[in-house]
Amino acid sequence: MSDTPLPGTPPSGKPLANRIAVVTGASRGIGRAASLALAEAGAHVIAVARTQGALEELDDAVRNAGGSATLVPLDLCDYDAIDRLGAAIHERWGRLDALVGNAGVLGKLMPLGHIDPKVWSNVMDVNVTANWRLIRSLDPLLRRSDAGRAVFVTSGAASSCRAYWGPYAVSKAALEALVRTYAAETATTPVRAMLLNPGPLRTAMRKAAMPGEDPDTLRTPEDLAPHIVRLASPDWTESGAIYDFPTDRVLTPQKPA
Ligand code: NAP
PANTHER family per the record (predicted)? Predict the structure, then answer.
């Protein structure tokens, strides 16, 4: 036995000790479980969502687990607020080690011709434009980390193109193009940008999409959370690919010749 930490192991022994992570959609579902798991792994979590009460409950859970968080009640459609978040992180920490772009909305499941333009716009605003604005605002801070990690939550809907899932499917396909482009632009830096397909998980969004389904048949956000910690860790080296939780495989999209 030795009291000396192993080389590369942070003094606390926690794999993400002293690392700073932003998680969007931290108030419930996948984002909440990811926030808690990142905090348990030692990261200081900057938890973003609109619902202040739920963020405060997350903060209690993080503290009880011996972790720390900064709560940021924010509507991701307020793009100036995203820029202010970037400025505040720069001022306080000067860098960002991980960004988990998880917040998302389903919109309405209906034929393309019936969709209210306001619903279409909101799905694009939250699922696509807000993630671009996060990259725009936080990329300089990720580049200042020794191992900046960006993880964005996509869906099998991006490629299945099922009837009635139009806005959501289009938004996730756009998100995948966005993140793969970001991965290409950061290929020669320490930053790594990944997509994550969680598959069907027991959350409010899944319940809204599949009201007749028995939630007990689904895996939970807590099952997924350790994989998000892995993707957010300096040890993760892949970029521009999709980590597919249902199959535990890294899917590298084909590039045209
Ligand atoms: P959820 O339980 O509905 O949670 C969505 C989160 O996004 C909430 O924390 C919500 O917080 C936040 N959010 C939504 N609009 C926002 C806005 N305008 N500003 C700030 N935050 C906002 O959904 P989930 O199932 O955990 O989904 C998380 C991600 O996984 C999404 O990107 C979803 O598309 C993806 N996904 C989920 C499944 C699944 O089976 N669950 C499958 C594939 C992909 P507030 O309401 O407090 O703002």
Answer: DEHYDROGENASE/REDUCTASE SDR FAMILY MEMBER 7B, SHORT CHAIN DEHYDROGENASE
